[in-house]
């Protein structure tokens, strides 16, 4: 392994958007480590992805306690690469992690108790070899724990110096507004929401994006490529090594129907007319809305990342293009 020296040109082309009304700016594209960084994945490939991201101005890496598999292994592998390659660049990075899904057995390793969140972040910091994360998220709403307790835990974590900012993920508009009220009273630096959003899944347009804009909170949107469906990958079937071909993956092969392939082909034609790959158009489509602070992509290799980064060269759409996309996707 050669020693990593980041490119001197790393800030030449990426653009950054302010995250809500906070002091932090995020790159238009951020890198997620949900897949491809676990113990079953190729470690040197993971390293190359992180290096390429940073060399292109991607300053934000997003993790969670349970990314892997096995749970915790993405943080552990990231930590190893961080110590070897990125330690001297710590102050140029926004590193996030989360807790909210099942992590360890028994009643204290899941959901939103103060006990779980505080213990989980301590474990995450150990695995990554970090003193603090930049953003700590509650990963999903907990229907049973009082919101005051969960938001109180986020506040305690910041007061302990273990996170600089906090965020929430997968909360609907109403619960987001309630959480924001509690966090405001506590004076907790709540700056970001992480929802699912892409051309095919637009639930955030029914209130959440407006709520975030009203309260001055940024958004970083996940699964922007619908896990690879909104790329050229499935245009002619299911390739080997793709998520849909992987047993037990979150993208079931039954999703890739004839009707879906037809839609992807039609979208691909529009992308070609814009001189973009379908993945680039899908990322650009999200960035056209400035309420989206950053698009959180996952990639299984460097070529995919390089493809996606090019999206920022054209994030404008004509009315006609938008109408055609809506028609293809039945919106
Ligand atoms: N907060 C939450 O609850 C939550 C939930 C899910 C994800 N996330 C975050 O969001 C990140 C991204 O989510 P995601 O992985 O679902 O996102 P995605 O960007 O929709 O899908 C990523 C997958 O698409 C394929 N791909 C990416 N770029 C491509 C390209 N240019 N050409 C062809 N295929 C391409 C790759 O699949 P192959 O493996 O098939 O090559 C890649 O692994 C995660 O890493 C995580 O940080 C958060």
In short:
This protein has a single domain, classed as NADP-dependent oxidoreductase domain (TIM Barrel), CATH 3.20.20. 37% of the residues lie in helices and 14% in strands. It has ten helices and ten strands.
How would you sum up this structure, described in words?
The chain is an alpha/beta fold. The chain contains ten helices and ten strands. It has helices at 43-55, 73-86, 114-128, 147-159, 173-186, 208-215, 258-273, 278-287, 302-309, 319-328, and strands spanning 16-18, 25-27, 29-32, 60-62, 94-99, 133-138, 163-169, 190-194, 218-222, 294-297. An eight-stranded parallel beta barrel has the order 3-4-5-6-7-8-9-10, surrounded by seven helices. The N and C termini lie far apart (49 Å). The mean pLDDT is 97. NADP nicotinamide-adenine-dinucleotide phosphate binds at residues 32-35, 62, 139, 169-170, 194, 222-228, 231, 233, 242-243, 279, 296-300, 304, 307-308.
């Amino acid at each position: 392994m050669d020693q990593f020296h980041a490119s001197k040109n790393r800030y030449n082309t990426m653009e950054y958007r302010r995250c809500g009304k906070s002091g932090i700016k995020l790159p238009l594209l951020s890198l997620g480590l949900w897949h491809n960084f676990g113990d079953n994945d190729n470690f040197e490939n993971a390293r190359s992805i992180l290096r390429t991201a940073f060399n292109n101005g991607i300053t934000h890496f997003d993790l969670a306690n349970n990314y892997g598999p096995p749970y915790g292994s993405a943080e552990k592998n990231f930590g190893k690469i961080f110590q070897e390659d990125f330690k001297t660049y710590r102050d140029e990075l926004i590193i996030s992690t989360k807790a909210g899904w099942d992590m360890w057995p028994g009643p204290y390793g899941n959901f939103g108790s103060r006990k779980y969140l505080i213990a989980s972040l301590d474990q995450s910091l150990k695995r990554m070899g970090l003193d603090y994360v930049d953003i700590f998220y509650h990963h999903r709403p907990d229907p049973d724990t009082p919101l005051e307790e969960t938001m109180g835990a986020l506040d305690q974590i910041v007061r302990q110096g273990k996170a600089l900012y906090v965020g929430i993920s997968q909360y609907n508009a109403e619960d987001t507004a309630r959480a924001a009220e509690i966090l405001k009273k506590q004076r907790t630096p709540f700056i970001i929401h992480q929802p699912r959003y892409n051309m095919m899944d637009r639930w955030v347009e029914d209130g959440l994006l407006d709520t975030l804009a009203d309260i001055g909170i940024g958004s970083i949107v996940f699964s922007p490529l619908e896990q690879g469906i909104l790329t050229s990958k499935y245009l002619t079937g299911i390739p080997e090594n793709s998520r849909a071909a992987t047993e037990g993956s979150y993208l079931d092969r039954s999703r890739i129907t004839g009707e879906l392939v037809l839609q992807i082909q039609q979208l691909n034609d529009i992308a070609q007319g814009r001189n973009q790959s379908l993945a680039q158009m899908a990322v650009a489509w999200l960035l056209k809305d400035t309420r989206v602070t950053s698009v959180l992509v996952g990639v299984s290799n460097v070529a995919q990342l390089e493809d996606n980064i090019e999206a920022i060269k054209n994030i404008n759409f004509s009315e006609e293009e938008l109408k055609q996309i809506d028609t293809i996707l039945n919106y």
